[in-house]
Write a structure and sequence with these properties.
Rossmann fold, alpha/beta, 7 strands
């Protein structure tokens, strides 16, 4: 029960990495506040966690809207009394085009969710954590927060921005008891990959030295460590969980 007594807010919690993280955190004793735009899946996850003996509340929220991020934190504190952990995980893949042809509306949407959404989250999570005198924020970036990837300019830019935002926040708040870190998953078996054709998926497998794609549960284990008291001297860091992708 590594997180016993802790309250964790998880964005994009209804599927993929967010869902696996919510299940693991709840198993480890955290009360989890789940946010997503997918109400059906979010409510289903809340029900599952409760059936398994955990404590969870689902709240519909769009991370691209700052007012939703504010409401999420307000409701989490109202329902559970405080906020100890935040996982800013919500994200989309976006269009696949070279920069010179990239659709403006696609760029705006990816940046709004994948980068501004992380900022909006921290903007309201941090004041709540300061009231406790401690907290752990984990921003889900990507291996593409470290390297480029053709035809994914908005996603790459947003994830690079997330890594930089994480470092800045860590410098500002670590001495005040709030640790801020980011993780860099490689290609993980989540709904973000559902629209890719089989040939491309096969190519993606081959670019991971470990010889396979990652599982959401493998990312969740890293998030658990960063959220826990085992990582009390870890802040401002970027942790790849990538099957060797970045070692090449």
């Amino acid at each position: 029960m590594e997180l016993k007594g802790k309250v964790a807010l998880i964005t994009g919690a209804a599927s993929g990495i967010g869902e696996s993280t919510a299940l693991l955190f709840a198993k480890e004793g955290a009360r989890v506040f789940l946010t997503d735009i997918d109400v059906e899946k979010g409510e289903k996850l809340e029900k599952k966690i409760k059936e398994d003996g955990g404590d969870a509340i689902f709240f519909e929220a769009d991370t691209s809207k700052p007012e939703d991020s504010e409401k999420s934190v307000t409701e989490a504190v109202k329902k559970f009394g405080k906020l100890d952990i935040a996982v800013n995980n919500a994200g989309i893949g976006g269009p696949q085009h070279p920069v010179g042809e990239y659709p403006i509306e696609g760029w705006d949407k990816v940046i709004a969710i994948n980068l501004s959404g992380v900022f909006y989250g921290m903007r309201y999570q941090i004041p709540a954590m300061l009231k406790n005198g401690n907290g752990s924020i984990i921003n889900v970036a990507s291996i593409l927060g470290n390297v480029g990837f053709a035809n994914s300019a908005a996603y790459v830019a947003a994830k690079h921005g997330t890594v930089g935002l994480t470092k800045s926040a860590a410098l500002e708040y670590s001495a005040k008891g709030i640790r801020v870190n980011s993780v860099g998953p490689a290609f993980i078996k989540t709904p973000l990959l559902k629209d890719l054709d089989k040939d491309l998926l096969s190519q993606l497998v081959n670019v991971h030295p470990i010889g396979r794609l990652g599982e959401p549960e493998e990312v969740a284990e890293l998030l658990l460590w960063l959220a826990s008291d085992r990582a009390t001297f870890v802040t401002g860091a970027y942790y790849p969980v990538d099957g060797g992708y970045l070692a090449q």
